[in-house]
Design goal:
With 98 residues, the chain is mainly alpha-helical. It has five helices and no strands.
Length: 98
Amino acid sequence: MSASRKVIQASSATKWFGEFVEENKTDILIHKAILNIACKIKMEREKQGLSQRDIAKKTGLTQTTILRLEKGKNSNLETMIRVARSMGLSPKVQFEIV
């Protein structure tokens, strides 16, 4: 493959990616927020010396649910709040319309 063809392909890919991001900006921002919350929950759990199993017992959820939440794969807001409260946290939910 020639160097000019590689540049054209890279340019096309960059353009496609830019368009993709623009078209999916809201979904990307939501996913970023979910991952941020998941990371904070996991860090707090580890800070308190608790296992996923400990949180599962406190909340009545399964350990798999806690695992998925911490990986950002369970974005159920009610579940996130329940887990946060089980660790003595007071979560604040705020929506901003821009």
